[in-house]
Every structure is written in C-alpha cells, then in structure tokens.
Amino acid sequence: MTGTKALAIEEFCKSLGHAYIRFDYSGVGQSEGNLEESTVGKWRKDVLSIIDDLAEGPQILVGSSLGGWLMLHAAIARPQKVVALIGIAAAVDGLVTEFNQLPVEAQKEIEMKGVWSMPSKYNEEGVYHIQHSFIKEAEHHCLLHSPIPVNCPIRLLHCMEDDVVSWHTSIQIADRVVSTDVDVILRKHGDHRMKEKADIHLLVCTIDDLIDRLSTVVT
C-alpha cells in the first residue's frame, strides 16, 4: 500500500479531514505472513478485521484488482458499516475464471504439480507461482455465478486495454449486484494498474462525489 493510488487517496482524504486506512493483506507487501499460505478466505478475514477493529463509522471501500473481489465480500458481511464501494479493475472470481479457461490437460498438469506458474509482466520473474490449493479454496468465494447481495452505491473503474482483467468483468459485476446505484466507468486507454495522472484524477473525483452524496444521508 505504498503505490501511487493508495498514497494519492490518502493525501486527498487528509485534505478533506477524512480518516483513511490503507493496508496490505497478510503475506503481501509489508504485512507479516507467508504468501504461499494465504487464501482468499484468509484475506477476507483480514478485511473484516480492519473494518471491525480499526474502522469507525460508515466506510467507503476502495478495492483494486483482487481488492475489488474482497470489497464485495466485506459489503456482504458488513452491510451496516460499508456504505459504498469503488472497484478499480476489480478481479472478481479472476484467478478461478482464468484457471477454468485453461485446457483440461493443463489443469490436470497443474493439479499434479501443485503449482500454477502464471505468466505476468507485473512480476520480476515474469510469472506468479500460484498454489493449486489456492485456486481450489478461492472457488468457495466466487460471486459471479449468482446475484450478489450488495445494495450500496458501487462505482467500477476499468481500462479497456487491461490485459490482466477484462473490462467485461466490471460489466458482469454491475449486472450481478442487486444495487440499482451502479456506474461502470470505462477508460479507452490505460493498463490494469490505472496509475496514470488521469486515472488518479478520475478515482479521486469518484471518491469525492460519493462522499458528497453520502454525507447528506449518513450521520
């Protein structure tokens, strides 16, 4: 959580006098823990522990990539506290969907080896080593197969040149959530990280708009 987006949001919130929490999941970034022992379920517990133990009052959650998946779970679990969501290239069900799209032979080989070496230009090695057990556990947290019981305002930002998570995923999320206050904002250019100046400006303006709207109804 020392990246461009996280720091920009923190600076913006401070300028408004709003509290702001940024954190890495266990085993990620500067957080303690072993990444190889992490699961979507454990990361879901991380988010809920932050909401329960640190956050005070109504919360607007901003989730990037995998965080976009976890923010939906948080909104489902804590509907009284989570009052709005902003997804940045939200990777809901992402790894499970990508794994299931592999040829059956490749899936069997990964299951036998126990590790999926998934190519990525965002890793120094050029691949992410994902445990097969991680994928199987993540299947229990998939959301796009049925209506998603989230009723709060949702804003989904996505670049159409994203080569990691298709922008169609944001359309699927918008279709599945039961909330009627949902906007999908697509940028024609830009990559998965959405960290260019114009991307950050859009993100900050989206947060500002939600704060203004919610301040009239949330006490």
From TrEMBL:
InterPro entries attached to this UniProt entry: AB_hydrolase_1, AB_hydrolase_fold, ABHD10_acyl-thioesterase
Main location (coarse class): mitochondrion
Domain of life: Eukaryota
Record SUPFAM superfamilies: alpha/beta-Hydrolases
Record flagged with keyword Transit peptide: yes
Alphabetically ordered keywords of this record: Hydrolase, Mitochondrion, Transit peptide
One Pfam family of this chain: Abhydrolase_1
EC number, UniProt record: 3.1.1.93, 3.1.2.22
Domain AB hydrolase-1 stretches: 17-145
Catalytic activity field: S-hexadecanoyl-L-cysteinyl-[protein] + H2O = L-cysteinyl-[protein] + hexadecanoate + H(+); mycophenolic acid O-acyl-beta-D-glucuronide + H2O = mycophenolate + D-glucuronate + H(+)
Gene Ontology cellular-component terms listed: mitochondrion
GO MF: hydrolase activity, hydrolyzing O-glycosyl compounds; mycophenolic acid acyl-glucuronide esterase activity; palmitoyl-(protein) hydrolase activity
Compartments reported by the entry: Mitochondrion
Family statement drawn from the similarity comment of this UniProt entry: Belongs to the AB hydrolase superfamily.
Role of this protein: Acts as an acyl-protein thioesterase that hydrolyzes fatty acids from acylated residues in proteins. Regulates the mitochondrial S-depalmitoylation of the nucleophilic active site residue of peroxiredoxin-5/PRDX5, a key antioxidant protein, therefore modulating mitochondrial antioxidant ability. Also catalyzes the deglucuronidation of mycophenolic acid acyl-glucuronide, an active metabolite of the immunosuppressant drug mycophenolate.
Name of this protein: Palmitoyl-protein thioesterase ABHD10, mitochondrial
